[in-house]
Amino acid sequence: xxxxxxxxxxxxxxxxxxxxxxxxxxxxxxxxxxxxxxxxxxxxxxxxxxxxxxxxxxxxxxxxxxxxxxxxxxxxxxxxxxxxxxxxxxxxxxxxxxxxxxxxxxxxxxxxxxxxxxxxxxxxxxxxxxxxxxxxxxxxxxxxxxxxxxxxxxxxxxxxxxxxxxxxxxxxxxxxxxxxxxxxxxxxxxxxxxxxxxxxxxxxxxxxxxxxxxxxxxxxxxxxxxxxxxxxxxxxxxxxxxxxxxxxxxxxxxxxxxxxxxxxxxxxxxxxxxxxxxxxxxxxxxxxxxxxxxxxxxxxxxxxxxxxxxxxxxxxxxxxxxxxxxxxxxxxxxxxxxxxxxxxxxxxxxxxxxxxxxxxxxxxxxxxxxxxxxxxxx
Length: 378
Known about the structure:
Elements: E1 15-20, E2 27-28, H1 33-38, E3 50-51, H2 54-73, E4 77-79, E5 90-91, E6 96-97, H3 106-109, E7 110-113, E8 116-119, H4 135-144, E9 149-152, H5 173-181, E10 199-202, E11 205-209, H6 216-225, E12 230-234, E13 249-253, E14 256-259, H7 267-275, E15 279-282, E16 306-309, E17 312-316, H8 320-328, E18 332-336, E19 352-357
Parallel strand pairs: 1-4, 8-9, 11-12, 14-15, 17-18
Antiparallel strand pairs: 1-19, 2-3, 5-6, 7-8, 10-11, 13-14, 16-17
């Protein structure tokens, strides 16, 4: 086993070491304020909770293992988390919820910025202890890399003050869209909250989606924690369920981004990309009309691809339109069957957490645009 080196500044430089999740013991969590906002009214998951069926766990793990094989054959080192028994209650002095979630999506929990891996202060109560699945890996990295910074954002209390109670009770999609466009979300500004999967890394710049899982106080905390970086807020008014950015806005290589055509970045927020000669193009439509059974995510997981380097990308094997688009953009496309893993936490990028990518902290946005940076609250 090679000695660990932690370093990753973006999502597109050559990947050399990565964490890939596991589906073992994953649960559908019981209702809580954050999950109520996430689960669509017509979802087959409404009212369900507890361990996922064993046959679905086995199918998901088979596809996760297949992804590991592809990466290892290309010389990429892969580590795996240590699953907890997720079918047990989360109990703190402030709340109790019936089960935890799982550890298929490291991307949600772990934010790698340079030589630091930061555990995010997640807004789902069922995910309060999820970082513990990665604890053995963090300990090993700490022992093997003397420059590795092992960090934990402030642990939120997630009391009722963290949420707008009854925020999404019996409302229409139009009302959801109105609220999210107005930056009116289920999470309040009571304490810093963010998921790592709401953050896109571009060297010196971090773009954070303001939505149901990340608030402005969380983005302000990131700016203070990374004073040498520039933190920007982005939002996508066409998304009634704005949780995590990887099915909405994906950087393929320096200068090129694909954007979900029904969740376009507002014109005002596009200015910083235009000023620095970045091209934003509409992503190809998904191949499926609906997600797999018992899946939180939308059909736009078609966009949730894993970039191996500036010319190579892993895409879900049935997403022929997305593969065709990326092929025309000059990329080698590696098809990876992954729809059986979708219900456990998302797509190919969701299922990974960067440890090492080649490259350094570049300034991809030397021309800053007034009004895009995070400012102190209040």
